[in-house]
Specification:
Length: 567
């Protein structure tokens, strides 16, 4: 976790520029950050009272009485539910630099609902930068509680622009756009039994941003943190709830300002998961709010501009640009339905060469067939010998066809002795010490399709150096076979896991396992280069955007409603 370094300097600056504030009351000062594009008003509790797009006049945050400051959940030993509300704290020290367009709130000691006052320093900084508003924060936890989540910033009254027929959160997911409706109907994701209000989320790293989009304008909310050390969610709630209900996942919004005397509003929150343990110092953000005019393309362009400032795409092997189509061959599955032997690849390649198919992607070539015996990248005797596969690959290549071997380092097959004797140590663990489990995939036989004998998978932690060493050894087996590259299937997820709590893995407890994806891939690049194959091809499945620093290509499926937001 980043270290809280500039505290002394910050304190000195605040002594120099601290704004003298009046006692709380009716005449509370407002702090206004404004330029030609945007106006943001805060009160001295850090509540975002107003946010206005000055180009279109859209009052993004409309009613000041519904404004919110930050919110945290601080779990002391033995108690899970312990919220901390920014608006319930003693007024923070405020540093307002009107000329520099920055505003800093510094809380020392935080009153929690059920855990008393916690010795926690929370310092948040808001800066107007060009067309956007950037939020950063740092947190120093001297309490015995773990600060699990921080909600900041919060739009307490996200308003629907006048005349809007359709209002939604748009983001990125597997190969396309995800759309969560905000108005006139609201999509609810968690069960009705687990939340007080209909609630929805977009998650990093799949979607590094949310576009809060109306017909011809919107608000870009981006998480501009490239470390992936924390899960960040873009969340919306419909309060107090539906006016009519379709099912638990959808209902109709009220169109009045109040319902049964309660205010009707959309609350939008950026939720960070720092899991700051006692003694930890962490940073939050930056999160950028920037209105845009136009459709989703204009919103995505805000993200693209930021991405261009840092992302360096992996240099592609030259041949990749010439291959316009390739064929995937499925050789075997976990039920032992052997469809091809290694030597059959040559016959297939002759057809490929004749009809201009430039590459074969070989799936199910590993021991046990596809989705079995993971993460073994040994050959399977039922398909032929290691030498037969190596020879077949060389003959395919002589026909002018490339060979891409299907590979997977996401998890271990739980049915194997290897898992039970060794790999369980590298498994991601939940807060209770148990390995996470993924349900697996069923093939062909009625028994497996009834999910009776499906192989269950256990995600492996890429932040664990011992596992990365084992994975690299397995990866090098694909290099030794002489393949042109790999297609790392399911490289973009961890079976629904975000945080690993295993204290023996050498990472912070817990740690966001997505932060290990680049470490694993960089290790593979290094090993391939040392093996004399710097041009080895790396394909991934439905890569999340940051993975293009390591992977040359993404393969994914699309449906009829596909929207190419990854452009
Ligand atoms: Zn771990």
């Amino acid at each position: 976790m980043p270290v809280f370094r500039r505290r002394v300097v910050a304190l000195l600056i605040s002594l120099l520029f601290a704004v003298p504030l009046r006692a709380p009351g009716k005449e509370q000062p407002r702090f206004i950050l404004e330029n030609a594009h945007l106006r943001a008003e805060f009160d001295r509790q850090g509540r975002l009272l107003k946010l206005i797009d000055l180009t279109t006049g859209w009052e993004i945050q409309r009613r000041p009485e519904l404004a919110r400051s930050f919110q945290m959940f601080a779990a002391p030993p033995g108690r899970r539910f312990n919220p901390v509300f920014g608006a319930e704290q003693k007024p923070p020290q405020v540093v307002f630099d009107r000329r520099g367009q920055t505003l800093i709130f510094h809380w020392s000691g935080l009153k929690s609902r059920f855990g008393g006052t916690l010795p926690v320093d929370f310092r948040s900084r808001v800066a107007l930068t060009g067309k956007g508003l950037a939020f950063r924060a740092s947190l120093r936890n001297k309490s015995k509680a773990t600060i699990e989540t921080v909600r900041w910033p919060i739009l307490g009254d996200l308003s629907v622009p006048r005349g809007t027929r359709s209002f939604a959160q748009l983001g990125m997911e597997y190969g396309g756009m995800v759309r969560l409706e905000l108005f006139p109907k609201f999509d609810n994701q968690p069960g009705y039994f687990g939340v007080d209000y209909p609630t929805q989320f977009l998650k990093t790293p799949y979607s590094p941003f949310s576009l809060v989009a109306a017909n011809s304008q919107g608000l870009y909310v981006g998480c501009h943190d490239t470390t992936l050390q924390q899960l960040v969610e873009f969340s919306a709630q419909l309060r107090p709830g539906y006016v009519s209900y379709e099912y638990w996942d959808k209902g109709v919004n009220p169109t009045t300002d109040t319902l049964s005397g309660k205010p009707v509003h959309l609350q939008f929150e950026v939720i960070h998961f720092p899991f700051a343990a006692p003694g930890d110092s962490v940073t939050i953000g930056p999160v950028v709010l920037q209105p845009y005019q136009g459709d989703w393309h204009a919103g995505a362009d805000v993200y693209r501009q930021w991405r261009k400032s840092w992302l360096r795409p992996a240099r592609k092997p030259a041949w990749l640009r010439k291959v316009l189509s390739w064929q995937q061959i499925h050789m075997n599955n976990p039920e032992g339905d052997v469809r091809y032997r290694y030597r059959d690849l040559v016959t297939i390649a002759k057809d490929c060469a004749r009809y201009g198919v430039g590459a074969i992607q070989v799936t199910g070539w590993t021991l046990g067939g596809q989705d079995s015996q993971n993460p073994s990248h040994n050959t399977d005797p039922r398909l032929g010998t290691w030498q037969e596969l190596r020879d077949a690959i060389a003959r395919v290549q002589r026909l002018g066809v490339k060979v891409v071997l299907f590979a997977k380092f996401t998890w271990a097959d739980r049915t194997t002795a290897w898992y039970r004797n060794e790999l369980v140590r590298y498994a991601t663990k939940d807060p209770y010490g148990d390995p996470h489990v993924y349900p697996g995939y069923a093939y062909q036989t009625a028994t497996q399709l009834a999910d009776i004998n499906t192989h269950r998978f256990v995600p492996l932690c890429p932040l664990c150096p011992e596992w990365r060493a084992v994975a690299t050894k397995e990866f090098l087996k694909t290099v030794a076979l002489g393949a042109d590259g790999i297609l790392y299937d399911e490289n973009q997820h961890h079976g629904g896991v975000y945080y690993c709590f295993d204290p023996s893995h050498g990472h912070h407890v817990p740690a966001n396992v997505f932060a290990g994806d680049a470490l694993l891939a960089r290790g593979f690049h290094k090993a391939a280069t040392e093996a004399g194959r710097p041009d080895f091809f790396f394909g991934g499945e439905g890569n999340y955007d940051f993975q293009f620093e390591e992977y040359h290509l993404s393969y994914f499926r699309v449906d009829l409603n596909h929207v190419p937001i990854h452009r």
